[in-house]
């Protein structure tokens, strides 16, 4: 086969992936893969996956194909690990991967010991608690890294990775449930499944997602990403501080001075309006008529993480794939005036969270977008009787 470059190589690689999808064995196609692959980059792999999704292959199938072609691409991808300084978000994420894999291995060994020595239960629970405490790792990817990739046109790999995050979460939930029910006999099976899911997922991120991110995201953006990471917090490690960039020493946020925003019922300065919105006892997010996230307030104790990376992102991309159809239905119902509120309440971190969505209409009845209002109603739910006296400040 002659050397294939550019679109020709992409087309040939897509054709082989389709043949895998149709049922041909990887072994029968290995020689063709090796000849076509050459020095194909992780970014090219990511873009091919996006093209396949646009052409109708479900994301679940892309994930299965990813498992197959990773086995074939492993030799070529070994060495694709991006080089990043210790302060860099990619360096931090990969370091956390190593710690989580070690914890996963330890959990499996503890599960095997638990199978023959039930008194080892506390050791198993201690390791499992450490793995439960790694949620900030996935939160940082979903709420910061993925939106930046989407801004650069990389949409399908983050969507697939988010699906795998949810699969890892589901296994953890199964382990937690089995522990609560005293089903220690399942711990080896579940711990093995968790370790394999993490190893497969982290391999894809290290060798495809992160190199792609390194290629498309600019240096200045990485500094913004790191600042957003700091706001969410870390697991497993304490990264070194981000060094000051050129011209950033003593840099402060630009604030527009003077002027007031005049409304029919009063007026504010910009400073006052920002302070009022951030003081409200509810979390607010505004999504405009084009389904783009435009604003969120910064309350002291948010129920859910919001980062500035979400601004300008399509709201559909802010939810797991399994929930997108609900989001689409709410938006469609609002636009067509079939409902004027959509509300949910969930238990989150031991708190009762009340989530409501309202359509926003302009003066002439035009649809302007949606506002999401989230409130911790744990204390409100327990109110009884009346309270007419003012407590003394503590």
SSE blueprint:
Layout: H1 6-21, H2 26-37, H3 42-54, H4 59-77, H5 89-116, H6 121-132, H7 135-151, H8 156-180, H9 187-216, H10 219-232, E1 260-263, E2 266-269, H11 270-279, E3 283-288, E4 293-296, H12 324-335, E5 342-348, E6 351-361, E7 367-376, H13 378-381
Helix pairs in contact: 1-2, 2-4, 3-9, 4-9, 5-6, 5-9, 7-8, 7-10, 8-9
Shape call: globular
Order of helices and strands: HHHHHHHHHHEEHEEHEEEH
- Mean pLDDT over the full residue set: 83
Q: Characterize the largest beta sheet: strand count, sense, and whether it forms a barrel.
A: 5 strands, antiparallel
Return the domain count: 3
What is the CATH top level name of the largest domain? Mainly Alpha
Textual characterization of the structure:
The chain is of the alpha+beta class and 394 residues long. The chain has three domains: 6-77; 89-232, nmb1532 protein domain like (Four Helix Bundle (Hemerythrin (Met), subunit A), Up-down Bundle), CATH 1.20.120; 262-381, Beta-Lactamase. Helix content is 54%, strand content 12%. The protein has helices at residues 6-21, 26-37, 42-54, 59-77, 89-116, 121-132, 135-151, 156-180, 187-216, 219-232, 270-279, 324-335, 378-381; strands spanning 260-263, 266-269, 283-288, 293-296, 342-348, 351-361, 367-376. Strand 5 and strand 6 form a beta hairpin. Helix 3 packs across helix 9 and helix 5 (89-116) runs antiparallel to helix 9. The radius of gyration is 24 Å and the shape is globular. The model is unreliable at 1-6, 72-80 and 248-256 (pLDDT under 50).
